[in-house]
Amino acid sequence: VELDPLSSMAHGAYGMRLRVNHRYDEAIAEWQKALGLNPSAPVMHHNLAITYHLKGMDQQAFAEAKAQAVEIEHDAETAAALDGGYAQGGFREAMRRAAEIRVARSRRMYVPPSRIAELYALAGDKDRVLAWLRKSLDQHELTAMNLRVPVWDFLRFDPGFQEIFQRRMKPQQ
After folding, report:
1. Residue from 110, 70, 62 nearest 88 by CA
2. To 10 degrees, the CA torsion angle through 25, 93, 65, 127?
3. pLDDT digits over 135-150, tens only?
4. Phi/psi of residue 157, nearest 5 degrees
5. Can you tell me the mean pLDDT for 46-54?
6. Which residues contact 90 (CB under 8 A, 6 or more apart)?
7. Which long-range contacts (CB under 8 A, 24 or more apart) does 112-116 make?
8. Ramachandran category for residue 109: left, alpha or beta (phi over 0 → left; psi -120 to 50 → alpha)
9. Rounded CA gap, 37 and 7, in Å?
């Protein structure tokens, strides 16, 4: 950030480092700076939504997820699922429905399993998170390597998560 203060990627990377260290207010500020520099970056909206959720700001998290679906991805199907879920059961239900949209899409095109796992984590669905994390690991998905991020905190001591974590740590034969 000091070397390139106009780089949205630098602010985003710093925001990720702050979030990993549970410094949510500072992370939110970095994601907002990143979006100010590049408002159409889906990864910035996505990470800001997650950080809002981790801070307990589910209204803002929902608004950010919806903005990403509508304004950036032009994804009417996900936007409708988010709206219906939020109206029926709040943030967690909205995330569950967004995950189900991604699951359906994964049957006809590639959707990163870690992205589906992350949505199920935001929905608080432990069993589905673990299943999709296993798929991510089986596919050698690079993002599966980062199991220390706060979105997985609620699973930290679960035996299934511990098994995935240990499996990830073993060198591939």
Report:
1. 62
2. 80
3. 998 888 866 567 778 8
4. -105, 10
5. 95
6. 58
7. 112/136, 112/141, 112/143, 113/139, 113/141, 113/144, 114/141, 114/143, 114/144, 115/143
8. beta
9. 7
The DSSP secondary structure of 1-54, one letter per residue, reads --S-TT-HHHHHHHHHHHHHTT-HHHHHHHHHHHHHH-TT-HHHHHHHHHHHHH
Q: Distances in Å between the alpha carbon of 55 and those of 86, 100, 133?
A: 18, 24, 23
The pair phi, psi for residue 117, each rounded to 5°, is -60, -40
| Angle, CA 17 vertex, CA 114 and CA 35 arms, to 5° | 80
Residue 125's SS3 state is: coil
**121 CA to centre of own chain:** 8
